[in-house]
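Fig. S4 source data, part A: sequence.
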Amino acid sequence: MDLNKFRELVKRREDIENEINENLNFLKKPENKNIGMDGKLVDAEGFPRNDIDIYSIRVARNKIICLKNDYLDVNKEIEEYLHTVHNSQPAIRVERNRMGNVNGNTATLISDVTNGNHIHGLDTKQEQTELTIEELVEMAKRNVFAEVDEIVENSPSHKAGLRVNDHIFQFGDVKKEEKDNNTNVDMLKLISNFMKNNPSKIEIKIVRENKIYVCNIFPEKTSNGLYIGCHLTPT
């Protein structure tokens, strides 16, 4: 299964969850007497109730049952894909974030560690040239190769201040060079190789809301390799 198929499955799972919730909310409406999945459709004498729309309730209940089965099937495919990823690239553990864009500790804003209005270039051939923060941000944007699309709460990435939707232009020693022809997918493979060196600290440079931040992640050692608790996708 390729990454695009995986994304389709995740989107399908989210759609199923939303549809289940819509039908559950329908069953909880006042006009349906908050009947839910288990409320009786007949009165005390065994006759169909005349104070609710029995047909619509039955349709909603049946839809929920079918959707739950679909959810299990999709979830199984996702878990199989994640298992394959973990085995082939144990250095990067991928987990789904159900907490939304959770906030961890604060990442360091690049302007907070500089003096005046200028800072030095980001490890490029312009390293000795002073650039304004605005120029530096534009240069960083051109070198972005990955986006954070999932964060696990209380993981090393979360504690370091990394957030969903952060754009990465440097991950430890991995960064784009003008002389190479690496695609953004290739850059993620380089990250995987970098992680196999078991770094005790990873400095990650990101672009967030037109500002540059630096996050220092301290990976946790597990039986499957280093765990940082985030998922990256190529931009």
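Fig. S4 source data, part B ends here. The domain at 135-234 is CATH 2.30.42.10 (Pdz3 Domain).
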